[in-house]
């Protein structure tokens, strides 16, 4: 303990300082709630409905080892979604969500673009782009005012 602040990690840890650093924006929670809830929900659905949301979906689009991939991606979506909702290691938690969205857009929307054109691709990918940009925002800005990251970093 240093004064009245409680630090649970070493003060000379540049990596943790970077991961926990955030601004004092009180509206970042809106992005966190959106991104976190979507990924948590999608991850849970990969286990509840594997034939349409998990391994079955991955097999349909031609990804290798769909059984493993469905569980792997679902687990990352659940963990990342929870961490983002809590605002705990927000930057780190948003990295897998960014990768998931890049892969989702590349593997599913490029086919739509080729077969049905630009406007159909844009219509079908609006949520994907929102999640990608929301994840990118959280990587750049951190968890914001109402986050555990902010508490752990000692910011008031």
TrEMBL record:
Membrane topology: Multi-pass membrane protein
Keyword Disulfide bond: no
Keyword Heme among UniProt keywords: no
InterPro entries, sorted: DoxX, DoxX-like_oxidoreductase
Keywords: Cell membrane, Membrane, Transmembrane, Transmembrane helix
Cellular component GO terms held in the UniProt record: plasma membrane
Residue ranges of the TM segments: 68-86, 93-113, 129-148
Protein location: Cell membrane
Domain of life: Bacteria
The family this protein is said to belong to: Belongs to the DoxX family.
Protein name, per record: Membrane protein, distant similarity to thiosulfate:quinone oxidoreductase DoxD
């Amino acid at each position: 303990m240093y004064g009245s602040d409680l630090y649970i990690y070493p003060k000379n840890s540049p990596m943790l300082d970077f991961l926990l650093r955030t601004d004092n924006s009180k509206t970042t929670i809106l992005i966190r709630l959106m991104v976190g809830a979507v990924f948590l929900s999608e991850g849970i659905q990969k286990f509840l409905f594997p034939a349409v949301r998990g391994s079955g979906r991955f097999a349909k689009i031609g990804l290798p080892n769909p059984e493993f991939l469905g569980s792997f991606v679902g687990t990352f979506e659940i963990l990342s979604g929870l961490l983002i909702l809590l605002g705990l290691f927000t930057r780190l938690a948003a990295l897998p969500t960014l990768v998931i969205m890049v892969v989702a857009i590349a593997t599913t929307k490029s086919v739509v673009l080729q077969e049905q054109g630009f406007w159909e691709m844009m219509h079908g990918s609006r949520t994907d782009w929102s999640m990608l940009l929301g994840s990118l925002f959280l990587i750049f800005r951190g968890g914001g005012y109402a986050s555990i990251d902010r508490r752990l970093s000692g910011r008031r």
